[in-house]
Design a protein that fits this description.
The complex is a heterotrimer.
Chain A: E1 5-8, H1 13-26, H2 29-50, E2 56-63, E3 66-68, E4 72-81, E5 90-95, E6 100-102, E7 111-116, E8 122-132, E9 136-140, E10 143-148, E11 155-160, E12 164-169, H3 173-176, H4 184-190, E13 193-207, H5 219-225, E14 229-237, E15 240-245, H6 259-278, E16 282-287, E17 289-291, E18 299-303, H7 306-317, E19 319-323, H8 327-333, E20 343-348, H9 353-364, E21 368-373, H10 379-387, E22 391-394, H11 398-403
Helix pairs in contact in A: 1-2, 6-7, 8-9
Chain B: H1 5-16, H2 24-35, E1 40-43, H3 50-60, E2 65-69, H4 76-80, E3 81-86, E4 91-96, E5 103-107, H5 114-126, E6 128-131, E7 134-137, E8 143-148, H6 161-164, E9 169-171, H7 178-190, H8 204-215, H9 221-233, E10 240-242, H10 246-262, H11 270-281, E11 286-287, H12 289-293, H13 298-308, H14 314-319
Parallel strand pairs in B: 1-8, 1-9, 2-5, 5-8
Antiparallel strand pairs in B: 3-4, 6-7, 10-11
Chain C: H1 3-30, H2 39-59, H3 74-90, H4 98-123, H5 129-146, H6 157-180, H7 183-189, H8 196-213, H9 215-260, H10 273-289, H11 296-318, E1 322-323, E2 329-334, H12 340-345, H13 364-381, H14 393-402, H15 411-421, H16 429-454
The chains are: A alpha+beta, B alpha/beta, C mainly alpha.
Chain lengths: 404, 320, 456
Amino acid sequence: MARPRLRAGAYPSGVAVILVVAAAITRQPAIVTIAAGALVAWLVVEVTGRLALAAVEVEVSVAPERLVAGEELDVRIVVTNRKPLPLPWLDLSLSLPDGLEPIAGGPQRQTVGAGFAPRGHERATLVFRLRARERGAHAIGPLRLRAGDWLGFTSDDRTVPLDVSVVAYPVPLSVRDRRVASLRPLAETAARRGLIPDPLRFRGVREHRRGDPRKEIHWKASARLRSLQTKVYEPAASLDAIFLVNVASYEQFWVQADPEAVEIVISATAELIRMAADGGRQVGLVTNGLDNVTHQRPRSALGRGPRPLRRSLDVLARLGPYAAASPEAVFLRERGRLASGATLVIVTPVVPVRLADAAIALRHAHHRVLVLSVAPVSEAIEARLRSQDVACETLLSVQAARLA
Amino acid sequence: MPLAVRDAAAQLVAQVSRIMVGKASAIEQLLGALLVDGHVLVDDVPGVGKTTLARALASSLDLDFHRVQCTPDLVPSDITGVSIFDVRTQAFEYRAGPLSANVVLVDEINRATPRAQASLLEAMQERQVTVDDETHPLPDPFFVIATQNPVELEGTFPLPEAQLDRFLLLLNLGYPSADEEDAILQLHGAANVAPGTLKPLFGRDALGQLREQVRAVRVGDAVRRYVVDLVRATRGLQGVELGASPRAAIALFRAAQAHAAIRGRDFVLPDDVKSQAVAVLRHRLFLDSDAQMRGRTTASVVGEVLARTPVPAEREAAAS
Amino acid sequence: MPRSLVALLVARAAIEAVFFTGFVALLHAVSAPKEAIGLGQTTVLLFGCELIAIAILREARPENGNLRDTHQPTALAVVVIGAAVIGGLLLPWRSSDLPVLLMRAIGFGIIGEVFLWRALSLARGSSRWSQVRSSGTLAVIVIAIAAFVPFVDHGALPFLALAALLATGVGLSLARSIEELDLARAEGRDTARGGSALGTAFALGVLAVVAAAFAPSLQSLLASTGEALAPFLAQALFYALLPLGYLAAYLVEFLRGIVGRFPRLPQPQPLSPADLERDEEIRRAMLETRPVIVIGFELLIAAVAIAMAIILVERMRRERREELPPGASLERERTAGMGVRDMLAGLLPRRAPKRRRPADDGTPAGAVRLLYWRLLELAERAGIGWRADDETPAEHAERMYRAGEPWPAAAPVVRAFELVRYGELTPSTAQVDAARASVRMLEAPKRDSRGSEQAP
């Protein structure tokens, strides 16, 4: 662990030397006593000062590491003094990122401080609560330790870099704005029947016809009925939902006109992904936004289970409001890679014409497409989308909300 | 005098290199996996020669070859075989599936449904298939080379962790260098050498002896301990959600034996372990979201583990 | 009031008592004294008065509870100054001259006012580390000056110095931890009057004053105790100061050597027989009037000083003060750790871990291990470096080969070592000989160069 250390203060050793010389010259018992005391003090300051932060171990952890914005978490700092020497005082100062704040408040919201006097061979565990004020990946630290010698002449300062972070997921839309109708009907709309027979969903048999693949012959039924029978399957119900998240709130994607709408998009997507995952569906995510930490365009591969869900939610938590490219360019580039039969849910602040064209193109590539917009969609665009069998819904009327 | 593994490997590389340029290391690793009864997963983009390599290997070793192209509508019976009702005999007759070969290339395994994947992986593990309560053993040797598209191009059904662990090695053939690509064009311009035209280098008996030689390669206490230390070091690393399993330790042990035999040694060096560590371990580690988003790869994590784990050498020898 | 603040007050009171004792002794010594005053008794008296004054002043603070608004009650000021003047005039002094009288009255009056002002400062809760350091420094300076002034009880000065040093040590430690753990802020908010700790300090003060007042009877009691303890304490003090004596002697010789190089400087003269005789005379006089080194109030002061040292150490062990963010909890538990020896070893510069050469067990395998070790030593000396922890012998050998001739000759050694270490096989005689020859060849360039120097 890298430990930048600073030593402040010093013992006036020059004075001690002068006293020793004076004692040697004068041989006065009082001066000798003072000189001896100065030397002993020097020794105490040196030894206890140099050993102050030696063998002091620190561990910082948070629980939970993932939560929804607005929720609280516990920070645990364990300080272990592994040497027999006690410390008269130890000062801790933990830096907090912008997105986290202490529960109890205080004059300084970006650091949390504590002080106590560790004994020798003692472990002290400090626990306090923070609140995740906003979504994102919040890195906690560094932690600053200060301690000094027994007589207070010097202090040692050590900065401990930490690798502790908290991911705050977006606030659920219904919590964010109670006027928004439940998203459940939209989630159900997103999963419709597919277009291809699902070989896992056997329905029955029928008479074999010329051209039926030999591998579809049901041999046991054929043996029983004494004529060749072909298997029949249910059409595939799409179990895949891929969310295409657009963070550009304006036709020119590099202009960020409405960050609040982008936050609504992110919250809505998080809620829909959770619903889809709870329904046993595979979920994946593609976006034209950038990750706040890596500044790369993140994606979450299609998958089922807690890990893909967590990855998708992590992507949303860390998504910034700035777009790296236009949504139609990004989504159409994905066309060849999207799982066949998957339902695509485009969640967007606005629906410009080009994005509508992209949605139609994706529909023609044999995907079910649902467009969810924060802002109302123009009648012409909505009509065009519906005519091409692309579902379109509005999350909430921004203007109506602002007027209310 | 029995054929030595080193000589066999040299002959195989020389022969296959006639139709595949620049893949000597991959050829040796495939041979090594075959000799220790392991299977290989090749993670690569299309068009780098996966099918050609598999066919060439089968032809050179006088082994039967089948290819399975995975699609979303693949059912288990397409892999394991099916019992067909014969009207003449009024009885069901087992028709073997594509697994009834010594070398089976399973292309784009991540496009098959989980059920189809499971039936294949079970067959790989058990070396037999069960159809209608009848068990049919698979040929010996039985060697599966599965391919998948890299993670950046999403597959429909990525292999779950427990299934990935069944593959001894994860190889990445990669694009050839400019000179190699030029040599490929020269090779395919003048005379199109097909893998099927390669003559077998040695028979099945010789292959059996080679496998015995590999099994007999000695692994000393220090090297065995080194394997354990490496595998254990992958667990609990920052950013690693799931470390390598004990099966990974066995795989690394065997792969190191094969590598030592191919190098002409009858004992394993730490160098053999290090050279196989990435191929054996990187598909058995799983990174958490943060590590993935920061661009860490499992290969880089294995590299970190190798750098951090001390190699047993003169100090321990002095202490013992 | 937190106990730690009261403890700091007591320590500071002790420092102030020593300081003012020294001041009183100096003023008395320069204003026609008849004989020296008992410094131990004076210290105890002033210590008690300081504590009493602090307690009274804290009780007299205004209704708003803010200590910073505390003022000197007029009555107390009159009493203290008056007592100081009267005390100064009652001390044994020779002359009745008006100038000397005025000097004493004014001087002791000033001492009284300064004493009260210092007590007020302490009562206001001054707990800064820099203040403790300053007052401790002043106290030892005054004692140091007093050591050279006649008509001062020189025998008591070492004990006063000891008391001042230890009280300063305790005070510094307390003040620093109070500052860092911000207890002063908590104390400033405390509006409760009195408090058991302050009451204890008041009682201690009264006890000290009474003890000083009844000095003669206490003196004889302490004297008999001192007689019994004297030989042991004298021996202990002798041994404690002996290293310092040697150090002092070396320093004196060292300084004499330096000063001797500059002939223009006044050269320190060795003590003349007359000086030695005078020293002896003073020492005999001291012994006659003070038959034992430790008697009377000096014993009390020494006991208090030792108690303060014990308090300092014990306080470190039992420190329990905390400053936590709102809503936080702190749990403490014992844990395993290093011993005192390991802890002190950490003060020394870290040495590179010593590599242990393998033992020569007489077997071919042992010989190969030794040869490989020797190869690594040669590589390290040549700048190639020892084998890194994550490097295999083959990888390290590659590094050696890249360094050029003659390092490729090391191959037999590496191969033999790999056979022994990893193959767990016994090397043949030929392999061992080949390895030995390789090492000799690698060592040879050194021998050749030495030989060529000798060549004609």
